[in-house]
């Protein structure tokens, strides 16, 4: 029987090993530098409880598993943000394939779950690939149930021919809609207009829960993220009003782009404005010689799935299940 040790993650020493582990399960790769930069953007954890005794605040405890040679072979993190639904904790547990089956995943999960009980969390959430049958079974044995299904989609830009889809841009412009990028209208006043657009449209995403971040945190984790540039944020305007947006984010390793967000105000939907914004995003990606675009959609988001898959031709990829465990 191989020996292993569960301990708290050491920062920054363990970042390289943790990035390697996360790259086993994430659609797009990350780096030690990116993980450290994100972590440095988060102040020390500060948990508290609301009037109903539900867990509030934020924290991000992390554990690793070491084998008998001192190599990191597993990782676990539990986290919540200030805007997370009261009582909830999200988490991730990953073990190298060659080290599975000897109790490492169980040891990491037990440490994570014990911490969850100590802070009186009421709900645990993880996202698992639909093709990872062993991990899904691991979760179900511990009381998790499938709550939602999200789909991955990829568009190969070298083989893409938008054809008449680009007409949606002209149609919107003829109806009085203007298209700009955030680079065309820089400054905090316009960033706050964009923030309000995000804030109004985010709750319409199927499965979205919790509150919305305040402006400074939204900016940090959306338009301020690594790989996001003002010229890659396409905005639809009606007069001076921001009514739709597509934001692209580029991965420095693959050079691919990800649709970080797409949103159109409810009263402007059904007019092919989202399609026009997405086609402008495609044009931007092709101009940057991006190999592919990646996005994901909830199974209940029929209108966006229709745009991505049926109209534009994104290729379906294996998705993920939202796995939920109610703590007693």
UniProtKB/TrEMBL annotation:
Gene3D superfamilies, alphabetized: 3.40.630.30
Keywords, ordered alphabetically: Acyltransferase, Transferase
Occurrences of domain N-acetyltransferase (ranges): 4-167, 180-328
Keyword Hydrolase (UniProt): no
PROSITE patterns: GNAT (PS51186)
UniProt xrefs under SUPFAM superfamilies: Acyl-CoA N-acyltransferases (Nat) (SSF55729)
CDD domains: NAT_SF, PRTases_typeI
Keyword Transferase annotated: yes
Signal peptide region: none
Protein name: GNAT family N-acetyltransferase
Record organism: Paenibacillus planticolens
């Amino acid at each position: 029987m191989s020996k292993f040790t569960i301990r708290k993650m050491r920062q920054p020493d363990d970042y390289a090993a943790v990035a390697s582990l996360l790259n086993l399960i994430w659609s797009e790769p990350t780096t030690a530098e990116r993980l450290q930069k994100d972590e440095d953007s988060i102040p020390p954890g500060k948990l508290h409880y609301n009037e109903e005794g539900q867990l509030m605040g934020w924290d991000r405890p992390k554990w690793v598993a070491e084998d008998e040679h001192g190599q990191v072979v597993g990782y676990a993190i539990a986290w919540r943000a200030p805007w997370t639904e009261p009582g909830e904790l999200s988490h991730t547990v990953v073990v190298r394939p060659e080290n599975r089956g000897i109790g490492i995943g169980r040891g990491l999960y037990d440490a994570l779950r014990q911490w969850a009980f100590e802070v009186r969390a009421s709900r645990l959430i993880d996202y698992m690939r639909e093709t990872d049958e062993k991990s899904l079974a691991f979760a179900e044995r511990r009381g998790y149930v499938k709550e939602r299904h999200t789909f991955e989609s990829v568009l190969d830009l070298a083989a893409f021919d938008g054809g008449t889809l680009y007409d949606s841009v002209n149609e919107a412009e003829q109806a009085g809609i203007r298209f700009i990028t955030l680079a065309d209208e820089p400054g905090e006043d316009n960033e706050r207009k964009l923030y309000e657009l995000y804030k109004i449209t985010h709750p319409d995403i199927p499965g979205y829960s919790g509150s919305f971040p305040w402006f400074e945190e939204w900016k940090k984790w959306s338009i301020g993220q690594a790989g996001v540039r003002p010229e890659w944020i396409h905005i639809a305007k009606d007069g001076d009003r921001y009514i739709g947006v597509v934001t692209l984010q580029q991965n420095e390793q693959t050079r691919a782009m990800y649709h970080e967000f797409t949103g159109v105000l409810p009263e402007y939907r059904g007019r092919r404005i989202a399609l026009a914004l997405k086609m402008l995003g495609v044009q931007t990606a092709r101009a940057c010689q991006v190999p592919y675009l990646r996005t994901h959609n909830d199974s209940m988001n029929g209108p966006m799935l229709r745009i991505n898959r049926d109209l534009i031709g994104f290729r379906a990829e294996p998705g993920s299940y939202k796995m939920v465990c109610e703590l007693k």
